[in-house]
Amino acid sequence: xxxxxRSRTEIIGAILECANGNVIRITEIQFKTYLSYNLLRExxxxxxxxxxxxxxxxxxxxxxxxxxMHYLEVYNRMGELVVQNTYGKRTQKVTA
Length: 96
Hints:
By secondary structure, the chain is mostly helical. The chain has one domain: Winged helix-like DNA-binding domain superfamily/Winged helix DNA-binding domain (Arc Repressor Mutant, subunit A, Orthogonal Bundle). It is built from four helices and two strands; from the N terminus they run H-H-H-E-E-H. It has a two-stranded antiparallel sheet with strand order 1-2. Helix 1 (8-19) crosses helix 2 (26-33).
């Protein structure tokens, strides 16, 4: 199978989508996002530092913060706009 290269934004969106307001453990995020453990830890650190994800100490789990939910909404809306503009409109010929 050919490896799929994802942008940083796509990986962050995938991690936040996994949690999506629910409590989720690191292994479940890892399997759902197809990330290595070390790479996932780097992203989780970034997301926690930017208050997009929170770590729940007692449960050893993660949960999307309200700020993270807002990011996810905007990310999904942008994805919809790209799809609409790509497939919804015909491109016009430019005449010189």
